[in-house]
Amino acid sequence: MKVILLENITKIGSIGEVIEVKRGFARNFLIANKKALYASKENIKEVEKIKNELNKKDLEKKKSANDISEKLKSKQYTIKKLSTEKNELNKKDLEKKKSANDISEKLKSKQYTIKKLSTENNELYGSVKPTEISKIILEKDKIDIKPSMIQLMNDIKSLGEFNILINLHSEVQVKIKIKVIAADTVQ
């Protein structure tokens, strides 16, 4: 008996294929379980329509899969691009760190003197600010330190010696001493 398969069945055939099988197998298994139809002209045309629709859907799925594949490739490109940018940033950071270490060696355990007007009980008129400290370092050692890098432990409002911390890099700091002495006259 000739039947048209509606499903892929292993060792028998694939969808839309017209095959010859024994009459009992066709009626009792294939047709009863809606896995096949009798091979009439109408049924063959119907199965061809279904097969064409399935092929169209399959092509759409493949196109959609290709679109997804392209999107994934562009994301992989973006990830590679980000990776190279990260490497460049790491190189720049290493250069900054090396520069900060060089400056740290130059400033290590240095002492700078600032002259300020003071009262009889050694209190200053005003205080020593990070901008003054950065100007003195620039004048004495020709090293440009931004005032924002200078961290005062305490406000400097009297005569004496004070420890100052300079943050040259997130991983590099250096301590210097500031000695505040009384100015002889008003400048």
Description:
The protein is α+β, with helices and mostly antiparallel strands and 187 residues long. It has a domain at 108-182: Ribosomal Protein L9, domain 2. It contains three helices and nine strands, in the order ββαβαββαββββ. The chain has helices spanning 23-31, 41-107, 130-141, and strands spanning 2-5, 18-20, 36-38, 111-116, 123-128, 150-152, 156-158, 160-169, 172-182. The strands form three sheets. Strands 4-9-8-6 form a four-stranded mixed β-sheet. A hairpin with a 2-residue loop joins strand 8 and strand 9 (172-182). It is rod-shaped. The termini are far apart. The model has no long low-confidence stretch (mean pLDDT 84).
What brief labels describe this structure?
single chain, four-stranded mixed beta sheet, alpha+beta, Ribosomal Protein L9, domain 2
